[in-house]
Fold this protein.
Amino acid sequence: MDYKQYIAQKIDVEGVSSEEIASMVNIPPDPAMGDYALPCFRFAKALRKSPVQIAEALASAIAPDEVIAHVSALNGYLNFKVNKQGLAADVLGRIAREGAAYGSSREGAGKTVCIDYSSVNIAKPFHIGHLSTTVLGGALYRIFNFLGYKAVGINHLGDYGTQFGKLIAAYKHWGDRAAVEKGGIHAVNDLYVRFNNEADEAMEAEAREYFRLIESGDKEANDLFEWFKSLTLAYVETIYDRLHIRFDSYAGERFYTDKMAPVVAALKEKGLLKESNGAQIVDLEAYGMPPCLILRSDGASLYATRDLAAAIYRKKTYDFYKCLYVVAYQQNLHFKQVFKVLELMGYDWAKDLVHVAYGMVSLEDGAMSTRKGKVVWLEDVISRCVEKARTVLEEKNPSLEHKDAVAETVGVGAVIFGALYNNKIKDIVFSYDKALNFDGETSVYVQYTCARASSVLAKAAEAKFACAEDFDAAPNEQEAELLKALADLPQTVREAAEKYEPSLVARWCVDTAKLFNKFYFDCKILQAEPSVRAFRLALTKAALTALTNGLGLLGIGVPEKM
């Protein structure tokens, strides 16, 4: 049972949906106040009463039942106490039945959500700045699938532009096929950096000509481009494998080359296209935005042209319910312009396009530029985190088996969690020490909690576990607080999808791990009398299952031992 939803269905406030009310229900910091609380302040304007009056009126209108044991009002809050024995039977019974599916639903059945994320640039290695879009998009992909939607992961490759003419020119001047094959994507990037450092006007003109040859279908130029692309994809797959990321489409900018002309024609037909200094624009001044550039004065397309074509193609191909663009907040204006142009073209589905903006991730040394060669490669960040995790594990548990595999799971998890724990819009400065803190708000802390639960269950061996019908006593405070947290996972996953905010799941994992550890230290488990031991083992197993599910949605694994 979703207790927040159950409570919400008991409350009728005009103009406020049951879903909105459920999202407002929280767990009070002091259990003495109640198990759940609903602040009534948001209802004051609609009902024209004070929050105190509203809470008191609602409290008198809600009768206790087999789920809600008591309802009271205090200082504008509506407080609920639930039947603790029923809570235990419901939560533990449901988790035992559903297992790895606990927290999931079928609410999205029949609906497709396209998610555009990662969007790597061909011929450039991953740097730390690519971390957020990749793991944030990957988490949303898993969350929407978990809720029954058909998620379509799209890697909108950056495979179009004059930089590829520069690469070919650089390769022609300085490249060696065997050396590039051996050096892979980093050798290609070195050529790109060298071009930007050393190219003169003649080489710049040469680069423009090579890009023209790519566009015109020249075999040699396109063979070189496809080679650079194959080296890039082989490289990024190794990163995606480590981060547990997958895609259903790699249709990038170049894919839309033949799909832009119909967009331009449609804009002309609808009278939206205007000339400005030789360029073709859509005037958005009436909407408080600068013009959206569609074609440059030389007739070349721009990002907006390709994004318009991509959105139309995705709607035709996938008939999406929502189409998400997981792109940094610096592109806020770009997406506002693109979405507005689609709306002006008469596409009512433009309202279903969502820019999921996020802040930047960096290390302590700040900004990066692939042109200048000043970068921090993501593969190096991951590998360093894994190496550091192995060192920490060696210190804490020298006899740990499969140390390398555990270090990989812990180190990679720390990188992912470090990018997902805070609200997505915040800028992040990644710290290896903080990410691998066993006692902080980290994935390592949650993983260690799971390992602790696994250890308890392993020691229990053949001990009897309680079934729902065995619960003949109300849980104590620590047990009840943990049960409420476990009951909250389904609602947390739903809210994470509604707000495009995986950090809600990450924080749930940390908060629930803290409650489990309080339960672990305050309550005897294996040493308790048989009936209590059976219940506490069931609670331990339920916590492990739910935490494993929560971390799994973020793309983080759970070692059995640490």
Observations:
- The longest helix spans residues 219-243.
- Residues 66 and 123 are 62 Å apart (CA to CA).
- The chain is about 55% helix and 10% strand.
